[in-house]
Amino acid sequence: MEGRLFEEFLRHLFPRVVRERDLKIAYTFCLGGMAFTSMLLLAVSGLLLLFYYQATPEGAYRSILFLESSVAGGSYLRALHRMLSHLLLSLVFLHVLRVVFTGAYGRARERNWMTGTGLLLLALFGAYTGYLLPMDQLAFWATRTGMELLAVAPFGGAIRDLLVPDGVGMPVSLLRFYALHIAVVPGSMFTFALIHFFLIRKNKGVLPYL
Predict the structure, then answer these.
(1) What does the pLDDT average to over 177-199?
(2) 177 backbone dihedrals φ, ψ, rounded to 5°
(3) What are the chain's domains?
(4) What's the confidence (pLDDT) of residue 87?
(5) What is the DSSP string of 36-87?
(6) Residue 107 burial by CB count (10 A; 0-12/13-18/19+): exposed, middle or buried?
(7) How far apart (Å, rounded) are the C-alpha atoms in residues 156 and 147?
(8) Average pLDDT, the chain
(9) Percent of the chain residues past pLDDT 70, beyond the cut
(10) In the predicted model, is pLDDT for residue 37 greater than 80?
(11) CA–CA distance, 37 with 42 (Å, rounded to integer)
């Protein structure tokens, strides 16, 4: 039964036919689709990085040095992962701007707008949690600055204590950032993305025959 439901979901994810007049740059310039592709590539590159990363204050930076100096293609893989994160943020932000400027958040699409906004916030939080993981000086001080800024926000102190209970870069804090970056945030993003695509199809998307 579950396999049948998944098969039906995949079958309805894409349109059966596409009109020739709709194959214009206005429709094929798919910022959302490119953002989702970037997210998939980001997940694949991140999985490969997991084979070498050590989520400890002593081993994190050493594992990055080993990856870049002793693993074939390691430096390229890390750079690819970083650039994909920048690309994802840029594409999601541009997609949100396009929705705002075209007014596509209205007309009974409020729930889809909320899931899209959630994806943007999750992408930002995912990038922030990943910034600490190399544990170099730039990552440490940037994360510490972010935590100090968070502390002055409403309920920010409680959130900071939850994220860094033993201080930025300490064992528990690094492990929490690591768990958030590789499991909690990606899982939430893929869940939101599936809901987002489902709502697009339910609302007939931007094409009348979907």
Answers:
(1) 93
(2) -60, -40
(3) 25-202 (1.20.810.10)
(4) 95
(5) HHHHHHHHHHHHHHTTT---STTTHHHHHHHHHHHSTTHHHHHHHHHHHHHH
(6) exposed
(7) 9
(8) 86
(9) 81
(10) yes
(11) 8
How many CB atoms are closer than 10 A to CB 108? 8
Q: How many CA atoms lie within 13 A of 15 on its CB side?
A: 13
* pTM: predicted TM-score of the whole model, two decimal places: 0.83
Number of residues written out for the chain: 210
Helices 31-49 and 185-202 pack at an angle, to 10 degrees, of 160
**How many helices and strands, by DSSP H and E, does the chain display?**
10, 0
Six token digits for residue 176: 């929490």
State the residue for tokens 């059966």. Answer: 16
In the Cβ-directed half-sphere of 121, how many Cα atoms lie within 13 Å? 8
